């Protein structure tokens, strides 16, 4: 049962915050402030607040690949085995390299309804700074779905005029290697050919691997923000100066 539909506008949503009390997981809702898709560097503040960075992350993949397990592992360091089928955006603050990072993580269900997919995909893509695409190493079909989702995200971002899309591909359930149907090489090759980062993890077994996934994505988001803000490269400066001088020379002839 889906507790909420998130299709009606992304901003100002009801946002469940996750709390874990002994063995029971409780979801508490609060309103998420409207968030921009930009990193926010609050330069008018001091201390860690001055370095506060916000990152919107969308977690996608086929059914039962471990999207929620991965997200909950990152949020709570725990693996609880079974998760409700709830579409949620979680808010989570961490400090990375002295920077205060605020992750908003949208754990999305898989949908095959093409009309719904197109509409919601555009909203998610607009909202997201980066994507985590999860497949199960024991489920070849889930790997094919990742391939399609990468194309879909890149197509939508291109349409929206965004050059670089930070994407991390995650092969989950590494602990079930005896049931593996997708090799590590295949995952790595897909990542190489689509300019994505690649990790194989077990959300069930370790927190560390999951942490690397989120940190890896954060690096990519930072890079994409930096390259988007970069002034024209030296080549283009030389090119435009030569054009100016060439024009002057022809003017004076
Ligand atoms: N062995 C193993 N099982 C895992 C791992 N991660 C998740 N699972 C199990 O896989 C099942 C599905 O996990 P979920 O996190 O609910 O997967 P999901 O992709 O969010 O599923 P949907 O909400 O249906 O889309 C659960 O039974 C988890 O316990 C893992 O790393 N190893």
UniProtKB/TrEMBL annotation:
SMART domains: RAB, RAS, RHO. It is an enzyme of class 3 (hydrolase). Gene3D superfamilies: P-loop containing nucleotide triphosphate hydrolases. SUPFAM superfamilies: P-loop containing nucleoside triphosphate hydrolases. Its EC number is 3.6.5.2. The keyword NADP does not apply. Keywords: GTP-binding, Hydrolase, Nucleotide-binding. This is small monomeric GTPase. It catalyses: GTP + H2O = GDP + phosphate + H(+). Belongs to the small GTPase superfamily. Ras family. InterPro entries: P-loop_NTPase, Ras-related_GTPase, Small_GTP-bd, Small_GTPase. GO terms for molecular function: G protein activity; GTP binding. The lineage of its organism: Eukaryota, Metazoa, Chordata, Craniata, Vertebrata.
